Amino acid sequence: xNLFLDSETYNDQVDIRAGTYRYAETCELDLLSYKTxxxxxxxxxxxxxxxxxxxxxxxxxxxxDDPDVILIAHNAQFDRLxxxxxxxxxxxxxxxxxxxxxxxxxxxPGALGMLAPILGVKQRQEDxxxxxxxxxxxxxxxxxxxxxxxxHTNPKDWARYIEYNRDDTDDLVEVxxxxxxxxxxxxxxxxxxxxxxxxxxxxxVDIDLCHAAVLATKRAKKSLAKRVQAATGGEVEKATQRxxxxxxxxxxxxxxLPDMTKATxxxxxxxxxxxxxxxxxxxxxxxxxxxxxxxxxxxVKASNADGRVRGMLAFCGALRTGRWSGRVVQLQNLPRPNYxxxxxxxxxxxxxxxxxxxIFPDVMSIASSAIRGALVAPDGKKxxxxxxxxxxxxxxxxxxGEEWKLxxxxxxxxxxxxxxxxxxxxKGHDLYKLAYSRSFGVPVESVEGDRRQxxxxxELALGYQGAEGAFVAMGAVYGVDIVDAFPSVxxxxxxxxxxxxxGFYKWAYKKYVxxxxxxxxxxxxxxxxxxxxxxxxxxxxxxxxxxxxxTAVLAIRNxxxxxxxxxxxxxxxxxxxxxxLPSGRLLCYPSAQVxxxxxxxxxxxxxxxxxxxxxxxxxxxxxxxxxxxxxxxxLREGMFRAEEQGYNVVLTVHDELIxxxxxxxxxxxxxxxxxxxxxxxxxxxLPMTANGFETYRYRKG
Length: 701
What we know:
The protein is of the alpha+beta class. The protein is built from 29 helices and 22 strands. It has a five-stranded mixed sheet with strand order 3-2-1-4-5, sandwiched between helices. It has a four-stranded antiparallel sheet with strand order 20-21-10-22. The chain is globular and about 85 Å long.
């Protein structure tokens, strides 16, 4: 039997923004609405227990005490924790199901208010905004007096509050029975249960470091503000005042910046003609706007009484692929460190001793680089960390059938021996060197330094139909200046590629193609030549893009017919375009359409507007989706194996697994890496390897 639940709570100590786990520890239960699937069949409305006025109803107590009754809620993690802390219900997540997780697993929005109308569920409240106002009115202190509003102080509103709670559960039941189940059963349901266990487990945090870093960065921001005031004669009070700073640079120095993004400012810093005062102001701006340091404050606010932070993983938070996203403290976008690890270790020690400003000229930068170090192992434990090496590059080659690249990965993974310094001697070449070598027809042994870096950016930027703009943008991240690279690229290019690039540039410039207008001629030509070389060397990947798009078009135009696309199967089922991955999981594209020009689109939550709207797609984007999703499924298998062997997973960041284990030799990085990179029945032939480290304080590998 299923029991559907929705709870309403009160907390005058902790704001919900500190995270569900921190909030639930001290909350009080106000209302709990509940309804069985039997009630649903006979048309009964949900019952509501007013926990502030009466003992728990006997039927509800029986349902909760019966381990065979499945408990279902929207954002079940919240209700599971609330009932644990308020009435002592066991935390065990395997008894629970979550309509939000089930929606997210099928690329549907997680918010019930957005999800219900998409599924054709007519929500019972005429004014959902009014319902939310009632919830906020009773869930925390209100007004200038900061008093608690209750059934005694506001009886009419409380009665409406009860109906709001009842209606939410009735809506939940309707939504549950209209959601697809394809990706929320079997191993995927087991993965959600594991996700909940990982979130329950949490990870230990060095709170002393967090407090010290907050203090150090606050002081640094004040110092930076004083420097800005001195440099601008008081016209700009602090570097974070974007518009004022832009206007000052233009009025006083004639420097017209299009924006103040990190990429723009870093690019201008390399301009030798830039006046020194402008250079200083830009440098200060870059320091002052390091928002990543706010994660220290978030750690402090979210930490539980035992020093651990919980609930930082959002299951299927990346809608299109099923990857995790971050909650509470966003750990999926950690900054790249600007210092060597030894310097970061020194920075951690300096901040904890309140002397960071005496050792480091840029306190904001060292604090940003040290964020990973806030995650630590408790006494008697260690962190064993392993990462699936270049799993996206390997997965794309495997899905597309780019056999030379798969063999290159296998050869590189094969260690023949070790040199005098203990470094591995491999059978094959570094893939980034090989990428450049095949693109330009030069011996791989000649690819070093800047050439290897170009090869790296090729692999990272061009695999999903990226072109000139994608290469330049990725190059900026990895320090490849496309203008500086032009002479060597032009010299290495074939005459055919030079002519083709020239012709394409003239066409793109004439047609007002954006990238041809924003880049210099040399930059565009260099990026174009690099793109052409990579595409010629990766013909199977390049042909995979249009083949995947064309297969999707065929499936949409022929409902119910399954079409093969290499290792994938594509089908339209009702309003859904479904792509079956090798693992058996489905990528879901709701309301997929093909327009008169053969262009693909589907309904989804837009990553920038966060609205449910029509989103256009194409072959390269579909290739990115299936590659990242299939890589996530490899991580899933590794997580299950790691848990079975006693490696307690505490976090996953992209393709990296962070585990907490006893501090003994029985648990080691070699063992975890083998578990993570082991092939299973559905990914035979995929070359995988993993590597990592053991530590007491988390760091970048």
